[in-house]
Design a protein that fits this description.
- The chain has about 350 residues and is an alpha+beta fold.
- It has 13 helices and 10 strands.
- It has a 6-stranded mixed barrel with strand order 2-3-8-5-7-6.
- The model has no long low-confidence stretch (mean pLDDT about 80).
Length: about 350
């Protein structure tokens, strides 16, 4: 195209990068695009990290039976799997609210009793081990337990120390009193669960030890279901609940567990995008003003083109292509800058 060739000839590398106004306009656009890329990368990375932390600890979908235990969970899972093939695996567990105590310090905790044979199918919690070991197998002398690093700091305990887990069961003889059950456990590992609330509250031990503490025998109250795609959990949960007939069954997805935080993060991501986008728009106006100055400085060239019979639309296309070239240069360098900064942040994080 003649207009493209003409715009490049009139632009010229020496004239373009020798002009301070043009250089500043390109640099501003480069900086704006780079900041936009970095901001979106940071938010997307944080969102992915948070999602990974939730799924590693909570799983994709939890099926709970209220008021009674799930005695035949193998048959229940088989029935669900036949109806919903996307549910690819399961693991039984028991969750209890209790109190942890050590050295005169106490803290409210949530005990997660995991099945050593199946928990790896639905959780990646073992990789969250910060110190020590992740051991679920029972030991007759020293019952192993893993706790979050925040809880370890609160109780001032470390690997090898002992803590007491107290379950405040209601008294069978008095409605206003409790008959607490207490067991002593040895801290086998400290976990970094990727979320402050989890690190402050989560206590992980074996399913049998949790059942013994709760006095439920071999029955379980919950199943974790592993899906082929965790993003389908919100859509699949009500379908499974309807298939099971509703009450006494209840479902919770990984998204529902932290819905407020994830929703706020999505809104913040949009706001940050719009704020940084204003910088890019302002930089684009700088390119436009630079192009306007170039048009004024090219009056003699425009007069020559008109004398040669060039129509008005042709001259407009020439300078429009110049603006596109300047914008392309700024956007390309901006994407490169954003990529390098994002890689730099990733390197610092590691």
């Amino acid at each position: 195209m003649l207009s493209v060739w003409m715009s490049i000839r009139l632009l010229g590398l020496k004239k373009t990068f020798g002009d301070l106004t043009t250089v500043l306009a390109i640099f501003g656009l480069c900086l704006g695009v780079g900041c936009l890329v970095v901001a979106m990368s940071v938010f997307s990375g944080f969102e992915t990290t948070l999602k990974s932390a939730i799924i590693d600890v909570a799983g994709h979908l939890v099926l709970i039976k209220k008021g009674s235990d799930i005695k035949t969970y193998e048959d229940l899972y088989s029935d669900i799997h036949k109806k919903f093939p996307e549910v690819k695996d399961y693991s039984p567990f028991v969750s209890l609210d209790a109190v942890a105590a050590s050295g005169g310090k106490i803290s409210g905790v949530r005990i997660e009793g995991l099945d050593p044979a199946t928990y790896k199918r639905v959780l990646n919690i073992k990789k969250r081990t910060f110190r020590g070991e992740f051991i679920l197998e029972n030991n007759e002398i020293e019952k192993p337990v893993m706790i979050g690093k925040g809880l370890a700091r609160t109780l001032n305990v470390d690997v090898g120390d002992f803590i007491k887990l107290i379950l405040p069961n209601p008294s069978k003889t008095h409605s206003k009193k409790f008959s607490p059950k207490l067991k002593k456990f040895k801290v086998a590992g400290i976990l970094d669960l990727g979320k402050h609330e989890y690190n402050e509250r989560i206590v992980v031990t074996s399913l049998k030890e949790t059942q013994a503490l709760a006095g439920t025998g071999e029955n379980v109250t919950c199943l974790r279901l592993q899906l082929q795609n965790p993003d389908h959990a919100t859509k699949l949960a009500p379908q499974i609940l309807d298939y099971l007939g509703g009450y006494p069954f209840w479902t919770r997805t990984w998204y529902e567990i932290n819905q407020n935080l994830l929703s706020a993060l999505a809104i913040e991501k949009i706001v940050i995008f719009l704020v940084v986008l204003v910088m890019v728009i302002a930089a684009a106006f700088n390119v436009a003003s630079t192009l306007y100055v170039k048009v004024i400085n090219r009056y003699s060239d425009i007069a020559v083109l008109k004398a040669l019979g060039a129509p008005r639309t042709f001259i407009i296309r020439v300078f429009a292509w110049q603006g596109l070239v300047l914008g392309f240069i700024g956007a390309t360098f901006g994407l490169g800058l954003g990529f390098l900064l994002a890689k730099g942040f990733q390197w610092l994080q590691n």
